[in-house]
Design brief:
The protein has 229 residues and is an alpha/beta fold. The chain has one domain: P-loop containing nucleotide triphosphate hydrolases (Rossmann fold), CATH 3.40.50.300. It is 35% helix and 30% strand. It contains 7 helices and 10 strands. It has a 6-stranded mixed beta sheet, with helices on both faces. A 4-stranded antiparallel beta sheet has the order 2-1-4-5. Strand 1 and strand 2 form a beta hairpin. Helix 3 packs across helix 4, helix 3 runs parallel beside helix 5 and helix 4 crosses helix 5. The longest helix has 18 residues. The two termini are 22 Å apart.
Length: 229
Amino acid sequence: MNKIVELRGLDKHYQQGELQVKAVDNVSLTIEKRDFAALCGPSGSGKTSILNLIGGLDSATSGKVLLEGIDLSALSNGELAEVRKNRVGFVFQSYNLIPVMTAYENAAFVLELQDIKPAMIRARVMKALADVGLAGMEERRPDQMSGGQQQRVAIARAIVTSPAIVLADEPTANVDSKTAELLLDLMEKLNREQGVTFLFSTHDQHVIDRAKRIIHILDGQVESDEQKI
């Protein structure tokens, strides 16, 4: 199956007093396996809302989100949690690491919620940390790491379950431009060599320049969808 995500007539509306806000307005698009794609647009355009709907962190007002052919709107809260745990990796701009846990423990956290033997967890976590350039730093806590290193831990945590897709919401927002380029090098390598599918939400030009597909979002709608050659 090449189609990882399919959005069909997706709407997300909010009520603010007497005003109805259309955060997502009749969006239809697909994300293919091995895509390295960016949802880009100004703040408030709806790109993060789309990401949250794809990841099952929010529910649509109408329309459908299909993840690997599964209609997320038809799932119970428990079933949605299983999808998030097993099939979606998340990378956030604020890293969202657990402060009292080491890099190893943060990366292992999701696997430990699954029925996986400890030896397998260790093998997968050590490989993921090595893949993101953190071999030898497994025992460091977030407060002992730079922002770029913390984001590498977050990427390791996102890929360690071998998800169908990694959703990255402004992943370079809290790092300097040099670190941003290094993080993008890393994610590009994971996409190229391991086939990891990435969908970014961003207005960072570094990300836009590196993405292979640019989906412009404006006022909750897809304004254009450009595949780079």
